[in-house]
């Protein structure tokens, strides 16, 4: 679950990500203080920093968005939490910031639904990509998934809340012609890789 700082309560006994969405850039400075206070508690259920990022369509002034995003990158590094990125029409900016700050934590782009050339550039810059059901239903989505190394892939239900994560896995296993159990193991491995969790013994 995704907790938006200043808006949502922190859940008990459930994994979550914590971040300031680019849509909340106006209140960003204040929320950053709340966010660091929450991070200091070292809650083991706090898995990701995010969603954070840059949204050219709905996010307000680009400069402020970039600053807010960079502040969260610093928190991600300081508290050793991977980053979950919300990015709309600002991939160049996000890639530029990654190159500039050279983070050690993994960066996952959530809801990726763009062209293969953008996916390729992101992959070349070490990003992980998370795909939703609706995207995988498009011809472009099929191509992008096929061209992404499986070790860089995540799946999500965010782009279609009426499907279950199992349905997304099913669809992906058809596209990739991989047995569903094998696919789930591979993605679980990625989760462990990114979060630092211990890999299960099968
Ligand atoms: Zn998002």
Name the features.
binds zinc ion, TIM Barrel, 2 domains, globular, alpha/beta, 7-stranded parallel beta sheet, 202 residues, single chain, 8 helices
What does this protein structure show overall?
The chain is α/β, with parallel strands linked by helices and 202 residues long. It folds into 2 domains: 105 residues, Alpha-Beta Barrel (TIM Barrel); 77 residues, no CATH class. It has 8 helices and 7 strands; from the N terminus they run E-E-H-E-H-E-H-E-H-E-H-H-E-H-H. A 7-stranded parallel beta sheet has the order 1-2-3-4-5-6-7, sandwiched between helices. Helix 3 links the parallel strand 4 and strand 5. The longest helix is centred in the middle third of the chain and has 17 residues. The radius of gyration is 16 Å and the shape is globular. Zinc ion binds next to loops. The site of zinc ion (ZN) has 4 residues, from loops.
Overall tally of domains: 2
Q: What portion of residues belong to β-strands? A: 15-25%
Distinct small molecules bound, one entry per kind = zinc ion
Strand segment count: 7
Low-confidence stretches: none
Tell me the overall shape. globular
Q: What's the tally of helices?
A: 8
| CATH homolog superfamily of the largest domain | Metal-dependent hydrolases
CATH class designation of the largest domain = Alpha Beta
Assigned CATH architecture of the largest domain: Alpha-Beta Barrel
CATH topology name of the largest domain: TIM Barrel
> How helical, in percent, are the residues?
40-55%
**Mind telling me the C-alpha Rg?**
16 Å
Strand/helix succession: EEHEHEHEHEHHEHH
Query: What's the arrangement of strands in the largest beta sheet?
Result: 1-2-3-4-5-6-7
**Secondary-structure class:** alpha/beta
What is the makeup of the main sheet?
7 strands, parallel
Task: Determine the N-to-C terminus distance.
Answer: 26 Å
Mean pLDDT: 94
């Amino acid at each position: 679950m995704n907790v938006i700082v200043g808006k949502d309560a922190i859940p008990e006994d459930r994994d979550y990500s914590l971040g300031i969405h680019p849509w909340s850039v106006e209140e960003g400075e204040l929320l950053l203080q709340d966010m660091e206070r929450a991070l200091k508690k070292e809650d083991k259920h706090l898995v990701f920093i995010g969603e954070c990022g840059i949204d050219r369509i709905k996010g307000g002034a680009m400069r402020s968005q970039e600053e807010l995003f960079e502040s969260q990158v610093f928190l991600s590094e300081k508290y050793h939490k991977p980053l979950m990125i919300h990015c709309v029409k600002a991939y160049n900016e996000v890639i530029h910031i990654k190159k500039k700050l050279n983070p050690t934590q993994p960066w996952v782009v959530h809801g990726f639904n763009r062209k293969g050339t953008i996916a390729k550039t992101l992959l070349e810059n070490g990003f992980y990509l998370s795909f939703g059901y609706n995207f995988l239903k498009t011809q472009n989505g099929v191509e992008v998934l096929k061209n992404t190394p499986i070790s860089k892939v995540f799946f999500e239900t965010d782009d279609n809340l009426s499907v279950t994560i199992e349905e997304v896995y099913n669809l992906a296993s058809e596209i990739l012609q991989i047995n569903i159990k094998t696919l789930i193991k591979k993605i679980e491995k990625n989760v462990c890789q990114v979060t630092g969790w211990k890999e299960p013994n099968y």
